[in-house]
Every structure is written in structure tokens, then in C-alpha cells.
Amino acid sequence: MAAVFSRILCPIDFERDSMDALELACRLAKQNSATVYLLTVIGAPSTAVTALPPVPLNPNLEFEAECVRRLEAIAREKLAGASHEIFVASGNAAPEILNLTDKQDIDLIVMGTHGRTGLKHFLLGSVAERVVRESPVPVLTIHPTAAG
Amino acid sequence: MSFPYRKILCPVDFDENSIAALQTAAEIARQFDATVYVLHTVLLVIAPTSMPVYVDLYKAQEDTARANLVELARKHLAGIKYEIMVNMGEPAASILKAERGIGADLLVMSTHGRRGMSRFFLGSVAELVLREARCPVLTVRHSAPQKDLVGAWMTTNTVTAQLDEKLSTIHAKMLEGGFRNIPIVQDGRVVAMLTEGDIRSFVGHFDDTPAKRAITQALVTVEPRTPIREAARIMRERKIDGLPVVEDGRLVGIITTSDALAATTSEG
After folding, report:
1. Which residues are bridge partners to A140 per DSSP?
2. Least CB-CB distance to B127: which of A24, A124, A135?
3. pLDDT tens digits along B58-95
4. pLDDT tens digit string along B153-162?
5. Residue A38 maps to which CATH number?
6. CATH fold of B150-265, please?
7. Which of A5, A114, A142, A143 to mutate to test the interface with B (most CBs of B within 10 A)?
8. Is A140 in Cβ contact with B137 (below 8 Å)?
9. Which of A58, A128, B103, B259 could pair with B153 as two cysteines, CB 3.0-4.6 Å apart?
10. B130 and A145 in contact by Cβ < 8 A?
11. Cβ contact, residue pair B31, A1, below 8 Å
């Protein structure tokens, strides 16, 4: 059977619903024998990395290395058996996600949709909204309440 | 949320974007042996209760929508389990209600519409659904194929047959799908088009004649980016009814004289 998706990008911000997204990405990857591309974007505290320890304003190599280590740990734990690659980018999350989509010929993005303010409108996070709007490839979004 | 997906909800509004969503839903359904619920929402501008006279008008719209959905499903969901749903009301509410009603495992929808009612899909509908849906939502954005190219008009999810397949089973497939042509495939590549006429000349011998003995036509293929006029010209000159559409050596669809006729008679 032809694989529907072979290169699946899963942006990771280390929060719960990006882990739910990863879980789904992982299942789809196994089903399709696909490669999962894990991406963390640093350097834009308002959109990407608030769950991490204090974020330096100018992301440095050490912090980048720490992200890589965390992604590797996640990959070991969650992606056992699935082929994967790890990327850390600096900048704003949405453009970096779209950028990697283009560069790596991604054919599916799987991500959480959470926002971080308590207002209902922002339950669709700005990153997810922009990615959904601008992505040339299908985007699979998981709402926090959908997880579980 | 359940995985693998069993129930896939696909809201459509008959533009090329939602057709792309339907094609994606079809591919996923095929993979998971899932059922696709194809939903169209007839937009109610005035609540029917306040204006009883409009009920008939909406009834007509509902019937038309249902007929269009049947046609869409025939074209894009061949060989896939599906159900057709027509709701009335406001699109986002209708989609969310259907999602909960059927207990959908996955929602596949387009984010961008281009004309008519589909403009409601631009932001508000997709955004509301993304925000409120309980199941994962797969949004599909489609760079719509240009209307003068084969890609915009071809039938996807083409039913195929094998070189050694007996005419009896092939004939059954063609009857079931209402096709007059069927691509013959070997090792994933199209090797011929078998026509109704080819088959008819073996009446009485369907059970012991393989496809390869009945083929009469030399294979001609087009690509999704072939102009529809060019495809029409080829079919007219060679007096054939359908051409396989091939991309990177892979069969992606079939274009028929009816499709070409539809293309030339559609507005714009």
C-alpha cells in the first residue's frame, strides 16, 4: 500500500499537547513507515519555549545543545522504532516551521493548537493558526481537549 | 480520540479545495479501512421557522446538495466506505454537531475556499472548528489546479485491472462503477486502457479471456498539467473515450470525454 505521508514534521515545545501531537505523529509514522522530523524553535519566548528553564534572550549554543538533548531523549522514549531526525531552529516558531516544511519536503505537519492565555479566542494558538493558514501541506492539529 | 481512524468526517462545499480535502480523506480511509462521512451544509440565511415559505426552497437546495455529494463520492471515493450527510444551518456549528453525532475520529477539511459559499471557510469556519473539535483536525490547503488543465477535471481514485485479470471480473468492476474505460496496470504502471468495446467483442468468453488478449488500443497518457483542450483533441482524433492521467510514472486519475465536455461547458 502506498504511504500517504512519508515525512512528518512535529514541532515540539515540550508542553503537554505537543507531546500528544508527537504521540499521534509517531503512530502515523509507524503506520506509514514515515520519518518524523522533530523541531524545536528557540529564541521566541512568547511562542515556543516557556516550559523550559529560563530562556536567554539571545539563544546560545549551550541552550541549543540542551534542546537537542531533550529532543533526543523524547525521540528515544516516544519514537522507538520510528525513523526520525532532530532540528533546532532560532527565530519565530511559525516561519521556522514553514521553512523546515519547505526545506525537508515535509508532507504532513502534526501539532497541538493550544494558546497560552486564558481567553477562549486564543485557544487556537497563534503559531498553529499561522501554520494552518500558510502551510502548503496538510496540517493535523490536536486540540488540548481532544487529547487523551 | 481513537486510532487507527475508523470514522473520518469530511465537510465539503463543492469547490476544488474541499475536493482536495476529500481526496486526502479518501487516501487515509483507504489506509485504515475507515468510513468517510461526507458532509455538506446548506447555509440558512433566514431561519426556516420564521419564513415557512422558504422551507421548500431549502428542500430543493438540500436535494441538489445530496445529488452533488453522490456524484463527488462516485468520483473520489470509489472502493471506500462512505456516508453522505446534508445539514442545514451555519457551517461551523453543523460540522461540530456532525463530529459529535457520528463520534468522528478525524476531521479532514480545507482551510481556504475561493468562491461562493466557500468564502465562509476562509477564516471563521475553519478557525471555529479547529478550536472546538474534539477529534484531531487535518486541514488541507490546495493550490487549486488551473481550470484549463486535466488535473482539475480528472477522476481520481481510479479503479484499475491487471493484465491477467479475467474479463468477467473487469466487466463487473466497470458495471459497478459505470465506467466505459479501465486502465490496465502492471507493477504499478499503466500498460493499457481497456474499453467497453474491447470487452464486448469477447461476449460469451469473459471467464476465460484475460485482459491482455482484449486490448486493442495503443496506450496514450496525459499528465495533470496537460491542457484539457489537448486531452480532448487526443480523444477526438483517436476516437477514444478516456485517457489515463499519469504523473511521475504513477497513475493519478483518468480523464474522459464527459470530463472534457464538462470542462468546456463550465463557466469561467
Report:
1. A110, B138
2. A124
3. 788 889 999 999 999 998 998 899 999 999 888 889 99
4. 888 878 899 9
5. 3.40.50.620
6. CBS-domain (3.10.580)
7. A143
8. yes
9. B259
10. no
11. yes
